[in-house]
Amino acid sequence: MIIYRTFYREAIQASTGIIAALLVVLLLFGLTATLGRTVRGDYAQSVILQLIGWQTLRRVDLLLPLGFYLGVLLTFSRWYRDSEMAVLAACGVGLGQLLRPVMILAALVGVLVTGAAFVLTPYTARAIEAVKAEGSQRPELAGIVPGAFTESAGGGRILYAERVDEDGAMERVFLSNASGGRPRVILAQAGRSVVDEKTGRRRVVLQDGWAYEGVPGNADYRVAHFERYSVWLDHKPVVVPPETIQGLSTTALLATPGIDAVAEWHWRLAKPVHVFILVLFAVVLAHTDARRGRLANLFGAILVYFIYSNLLGLGQTLLKKGQVPSALGLWWIHGLMLVLALYLFYRRANNRPLLPPLRTVWGR
């Protein structure tokens, strides 16, 4: 039918635009957080883009349902505002008939979300841990940002360089070392990163500078000029990326005993399941008119999404604590939301208000 094709086209366009906007927001938040940790010296600059990319891909199974949910909502909202829904109703096409293309498209989105939840997300979780482990093993110099103070992982050393070249050459270097109980400040005009061929350890060779050791005013305070001064950087042991429940493949997860594995399984399963329930809410909440504005119903839709998401998070917590049977999992939450969605859909399809009047509820 032409109506179905029109719905597919508009819903896909709206969903794609929303998902793209959400990806941009997620990238900006990820960039801010990752840069902050890089400046503190937690990660090397070379792993920033990898971390941001993997962390963004890890949220695909959440972005797809949300984008599709809002895309369907905005599509039907436009139809209501332009009186297209009224014309369809006059032609005998009600919400029941329109539910078919909605569910067909939801099934396609559900397949994508299933692949993301059971394959992509665990893979990206493992990749993120591997990149973090690799970045944390890099020497202190790898995390230096030109023009910013960089603190070592142990907190005993602060390094600053006005300029840092790709080959490790630095200009106007400041180094403060409080380890060993005796403060030391070094100022140098230039410096360079050097790797010891025998041990593989890295050191900074400073040139043409001054070293200030001790507390100013004390008798043992010393000031010395040097032409060449070497400082060994922290040598970090090789870190094996930790294996987390979130990073287990589906096969490994099913073979893993324990309530945490059960909770993770139900959490992954909930992502494609709630696509179909959310889209029912989208059809119901899309009802609007020209006087209410284009985004009048968006607040209610977002509220429903957050309530559903928070209930799933609460259910997973209860499942991990053993307060909910493993066999029940998160199905009780899906059941409650499905009953509510079907009830609201029934009232909307029969041109009734979504909620009965208060006097009817209170028997007045």
TrEMBL record:
Signal peptide: none
One GO term describing the cellular component: ATP-binding cassette (ABC) transporter complex
Subcellular location: Cell inner membrane
Record keywords, A-Z: Cell inner membrane, Cell membrane, Membrane, Transmembrane, Transmembrane helix, Transport
Main location: membrane
GO BP term, pick one: lipopolysaccharide transport
Highest taxon, organism lineage: Bacteria
Entry protein name: Lipopolysaccharide export system permease protein LptF
Native source species: Candidatus Muproteobacteria bacterium RBG_16_60_9
Organism lineage string: Bacteria, Pseudomonadati, Pseudomonadota, Candidatus Muproteobacteria
